Amino acid sequence: MDYKGYLCLVLHAHLPYVRHPEEEYFLEENWLYEAITETYIPLIEVYDRLVKDGVDFRITMSLTPPLASMLKDPLLQERYLRHIDKLIELAEKEIERTGFEPLYHGLALMYHRRFVEARDVFVHKYKRDLTTAFKKFQNLGVLEVAASCATHGFLPNLRVNESDVRAQIFTGIDNYRKVFGRDPKGFWLPECGYYPGVDKILKEAGIRYFFIDSHGILNADPVPRYSVYAPVYCPTGVAAFGRDWESSKQVWSSKEGYPGDPDYREYYRDIGYELEYDYIKPYIHHCGFRINTGMKYWRITGNTEYKEAYRPDWAREKAATHAGNFMFNREKQVEHLSAHIDRKPIIIAPYDAELFGHWWFEGPMWIDFLARKMAYDQKTVRLITPTEYLREYPTNQMSLPSASSWGWKGYSEFWLEGGNDWLYPHLHAAGRRMVRLAEKYRSFLKTASKRTLIRRALNQAARELLLAEASDWPFIMKTGTMVPYAHKRFKSHISRFTRLYEDLMKGQVDGDWLREVEWRDNIFSDLDCVSYYLSKTEGQTASESKEHPESCEKRIPEEFMRPISGIKAEKTTGPRTKMAAFHATKSRERRKAVLVS
């Protein structure tokens, strides 16, 4: 069929790495459990139904290493099973409690069915490892999974040390190969954070394309002939696909976007806060403060406190209508573009995956309707992946994109401002120290087994630095939600790194303490993370600086070279306040609002 243009739907799936084996219940781990139940399993079910029904569809996703690592972690898998079993128990009680309230009784039955089905998908269909589902869809050719950075580090703010950028990119790609059993073709730059030159490292890593925000393309040099409706090749030959603002606004915008429709489910009214305390107590946080349960009986209704009962049939009709509207707008957009350019345009529509299902309950249903409507109800626009587009159009304009991100104001300010800028001197100093460690043990690394104490300590130092570099910590500090947790995580990782650095420089490592740290922060435990901090050639640092790493360190103020005071690295987290729990449920919503320009 001869389509006039293409739509590339991109879902960016990411959560910060939160794993606390030292505590039986940990509030922030709920971020993962909620996303599994409300986003990842519903998306998997949509893909499964589309495949079963023979619908021709294409979706592009990124599955970041922290998220993939948590999905594959046996401890978190077991804890999720405990979590979903409690939800099933609560839903059974709700079915009985709401027996004389027809609307609410129907919703209790709906949630019970969803929880039971989620458990079945998790335990029986995919054997607790949901990454195998995404791998299956990629092998079927309906899903293209892009790689991403090791811990979602915001690269424009890490570029002071090129070794840090290289470690983020190459470790992320190594993790991708472990999970999906193939080399990635595409790459998701965290927060779409691009700076000229990062494409050189992507090229070295074998990446064919990445995504960038619209102004990164519009401000490219020279100005791209096709705007954001065709990729450009960076001077390195790596393709940059620019985000289309028009299609993004229809979904993202809190004022104009579909998720704000009055008939959709209201996120901020949950029975965890609404029902009597003694009744709901067994299903909220074990310390006694209220949290979201995921059972929400109300629809948005309007911009007031008054909320009416949620009507799933009404919401389903709206999801179908909005899918049709989105498709219609893309048809008109493509018809207009194809009349003015000499190739089929591609519309890049990227979103946070967690918007679909978690924040926008009907989001997965909307994707299902959209895929079916585009396959059967029109002949103008086709769903496509970036790789397929590059195969059809291997020749593209060469242009150098401008520095940009998809965050507030479009550059780096959200991750570098008065509330979080104090992180970076510590990160940059630790990055130089990591290079120094790698260079000190260069000869040792060539011959030593990966299980030797020194090599384990070197790799753990690299992991602690990577974890400290996560963009999630400055993001949380900027939004003002769960700030103490972000502070604790950053300081803990930097403190552990500093101790490992000092011990390794002395050649004395405490094996018992190292085992405990490896047990706590076990991400990338099977990867040789330290290798990416080695220079390419003897006598040259990984950042290609003419200075020796030791001379770089001398220029850093002494206070940035010591462990950060005010917190003990191994201190466990105590009970949280009710207000902290309330803010935790809203942190992702604030993120969504921030990304709307």
Give a structural overview.
The chain has 597 residues and is of the alpha/beta class. The protein folds into three domains: 5-72 and 115-254 and 312-409, 7-stranded beta/alpha barrel (Alpha-Beta Barrel); 415-533, Up-down Bundle (immunoglobulin/albumin-binding domain-like); 562-596, no CATH class. It has helices spanning 30-52, 65-71, 74-97, 102-125, 131-140, 162-180, 198-204, 214-218, 245-252, 271-274, 277-280, 312-338, 363-376, 386-392, 423-440, 442-447, 453-468, 472-479, 483-506, 511-520, 549-554, 578-594, and strands at residues 5-13, 59-63, 143-148, 186-188, 209-212, 232-233, 239-242, 346-352, 381-383. Strands 1, 2, 3, 4, 5, 6, 7, 8 and 9 form a nine-stranded mixed beta sheet that branches. Strand 1 (5-13), helix 1 (30-52) and strand 2 form a beta-alpha-beta unit. Helix 1 (30-52) runs parallel beside helix 13 and helix 3 packs antiparallel against helix 4 (102-125). The radius of gyration is 24 Å and the shape is globular. Residues 537-561 and 565-597 have low confidence and may be disordered.
Which descriptors apply to this entry?
7-stranded beta/alpha barrel; 7% strand; 3 domains; disordered C terminus; 48% helix; 9-stranded mixed β-sheet; alpha/beta; immunoglobulin/albumin-binding domain-like; single chain; 597 residues
